[in-house]
Amino acid sequence: MVCDAAPTAGRSESGDPASSHGQTLSHHQGPDPKPSTKEHSIDRFCYQYLQMVSPPEYPPGDLVKSSRVQNEIFERIFAAQSAPPPKMARLQLRALKELVQRIQESVGDDESDEYAVSDEFMHRIGELMSMPRTSELDEAQHKCIVSYRLSLLEPPAMIDILENRSLIAASGTTGLRTWEAGLHLGQYLCMNGHLVRGKRVLELGAGTGYLSVLCAKYLGAAHVTATDGYEEVVDSLSDNLALNNVQWSYDPSPLTSDATVCPKLLKWGHALMGTEEESWNRGQKVHLVLGADITYDQRANPPLVATLRELLHLFPDAKILVAATQRNETTSVVFRELCSQNGLCLEEHAFSLDQIPKHVPDRDVLTPYYTLSMPIHIYYISLAGRPDGPS
């Protein structure tokens, strides 16, 4: 059976990922907490640039022409990137040229003695233009650090992810970039931190490890097992864990390691326990299972549902939260029907970012940024007969 409960009171659905690369994110996940101000426009531009939003929302020229603002922008996002990799060099050059153009267009003839493009901007442009050029095709083969700022944390914090938004590995995995469903589920968890705090978390289809880092470093998880079905993705998880100073180990036992995250290969549909094993994952209990954008491939849904069912039989008190982007109605229906056929109950916890701004300080802007062109559903999945949902 599929227990289609009504959306949680006061919340509604929103969100999307897959096809967002290259789209303008002029309106992220919801309205800004307060009417836009000039100072907010500087923050917004810097955060979007660091998150590699393309194109970012540039602050108005009459603001950027100020030497103080130019210095602030340079120190916040360009100063630390003195020798960027080719892809970042291209993005940095594009951003600097756009800023210079806006400054020049905003300076009137009678203001030329008062305002000018900063020496730092012009010097950096010269450096970037003298760098060896590489083709965009070659650039697409390399990863860059993408910085996601989480304004719902107190204080706001950054998660740095080494990823490639334009590359799908030869194995076919899409786990080399962070998708919008992961960002959306991350916002939900930031607002419902009690679901993670002190819990042992298992992430399915961890990809870049964004949610695992969030839970382990900022939401107080006791331990996180970050799993994926592709060895290439599991191997790369350690890079992002180290990048965020998160202790990790391939050994899940707390008796042998102080690590808070354990990267692990987990292929859906394969039995979690072999005939010679007394327990799964060294007997470590699981309280919360997370999955973001793991239902998009209809072919992968049967083994995924089998794994969800086995996990709930192994850990009947565990909660499962899945964020699913609805790219087409058929995929959503197939997943729901498979859950019903396997004795799993789905309860949708509709989550709208419209109510988030009241949680964001007046001085702040809502981050991270992601598009809303397709809805993102958040499902609580349980064994039929136990649809009590997160609490």
From TrEMBL:
Keywords of this entry: Methyltransferase, Transferase
GO BP of this protein: methylation
UniProt-listed Gene3D superfamilies: Vaccinia Virus protein VP39
Region (Disordered): 1-39
One Gene Ontology molecular-function label: S-adenosylmethionine-dependent methyltransferase activity
Domain of life: Eukaryota
Protein name: Putative methyltransferase-domain-containing protein
Species whose genome carries this gene: Coniella lustricola
